[in-house]
Amino acid sequence: MAENYNNLIFEIKDGLGLVTINRPKVLNALNTELLDELTDVFTRIHLAEEVGAAILTGADRAFVAGADIAQMNELNITDIREMAKKGQEVMNLIENVEKPVIAAVNGFALGGGCELAMACDIRFASDKAKFGQPEVNLGIFPFFGGTQRLPRIVGKGMAKYLIYSAEIIDAAEALRIGLVEKVFPAADLMVESEKFARLIMTKAPIAVKMSKVAVNNGVNVDMKSGLVMEVEAAVSTYCSEDKKEGMKAFLEKRPAVFRNK
Questions:
Q1: How many H-runs (helices) and E-runs (strands) does the chain carry?
Q2: Weakest-pLDDT range from 68-82, 106-120, 133-147
Q3: Are 114 and 132 in contact (CB under 8 A)?
Q4: What is the C-alpha to C-alpha distance for residues 225 and 12, in angstroms, rounded to an integer?
Q5: Which CATH architecture has domain 3-200?
Q6: Residues 6+ positions from 238 with CB-CB distance below 8 Å
Q7: Residue 181 among the catalytic residues
Q8: Percentage of the chain surpassing pLDDT 70?
Q9: Interior CA angle at 162 toward 125 and 182, to 5°?
C-alpha cells in the first residue's frame, strides 16, 4: 500500500521501494520539509530487510526542477548554511544506502534535482528529461553536492562547462556525456527501471551491497588504497551464506536462492 507524506509517496512493492516526489504544482521543487521526508524514507529503505532496491522518481512532468526558490529567498546566512548541510546530508544518505537506488528521471532534473539524481547509483532517463545546474543564473551555485559529484561523473571540464554556463541539456546529451546510463521512451521509463531493479534483486544482496561500498569508497582514494578496500569487501562476501549458496548453485547448475540482506 502506498504511503502518502506531505511531499512524496512511498510504497514497497514486492520488495522494491518506490519513492515518488509529489509537489507537482511547483515541479517537485525541494524545500526543507521535503528534504526531511527524503531523509525519513531513505533511512527506512536502508534499514528495511524486505527492501532489495529502490527507485526514485517524480510526479507529473518533473523529476525535481530545483530547490524551492521562494523559500530560499527568505533564508538568512545561518539558515542557508543549515539548508546546504541538510541537502548534502540527504544526498549522502541516498548515495550510501545499502541498497541500489535507481533515479527514474521523468522530466526536469535541474539544480537540486540534478544533484538528487547524481546521488543515486544508476540514472535512467525519459526521452523528455532535461538536466542542468542553472544556479549561477540566480547568483548562487550548486551546493547540495553538485560541484563534487558532477565532475566525478562527467569529468572536471564538462562539469565546469555545465555549471558556468547554466546550460540545460536533453536526455540524449546527458547520455552522451555519461550523466545517465540509459534513455527510454517516456511511457517505458518506469517499466524499464523496475525491470532493472528486479534484475539486481535476483543477485546476491551481500555482493551487491559490498560492490556499492567498494565503488563509493574507492573513487575517493588512490588506486592502491582502493584495492585494499576491495580486498576487505571481498572477504566480507566470501564469509557469507550467499557466497556458499551462489557457488553451490553454480556447480549444481541451478538458480541460486539468496537469503542475506
A1: 11, 11
A2: 68-82
A3: yes
A4: 37
A5: Alpha-Beta Complex (3.90)
A6: none
A7: no
A8: 99
A9: 20
| Per-residue confidence (pLDDT) for residue 260, from 0 to 100 | 57
Q: How confident is the model at residue 261, as a pLDDT? A: 46
Output the CA torsion 222→224→226→231 (10° steps). 180
Task: Write down the catalytic residue from 3, 89, 115, 241.
Answer: 115
Q: Confirm if 146 and 114 have CB atoms less than 8 A apart.
A: yes
**Within 13 Å and on the Cβ side, how many CA atoms surround 119?**
28
- List the one residue out of 78, 94, 97, 90 whose CA is nearest residue 31: 90
Three-state DSSP at 211 gives helix
192 classed as catalytic: no
CA 62/CA 254 separation, integer angstroms: 43
Residue spans of the domains in the chain: they are 3-200, 205-251
The DSSP 8-state label assigned to residue 257 in this structure reads -
The Cα 121–Cα 130 span in angstroms is: 19
Other C-beta atoms lying within 10 Å of the C-beta of residue 223? 8
Question: How many angstroms separate the Cα of 132 from the Cα of each of 169, 175, 190, 253?
Answer: 6, 13, 22, 47
pLDDT number for residue 121: 98
- Nearest residue to 63 via CA among 16, 111, 99, 17: 111
pTM, whole model, 2 decimals?
Answer: 0.95
Residue at grid coordinates 549444481: 252
Q: What length does the chain have?
A: 261
The single residue of 49, 74, 98, 135 carrying the catalytic annotation is 135
CATH architecture of 205-251: Orthogonal Bundle (1.10)
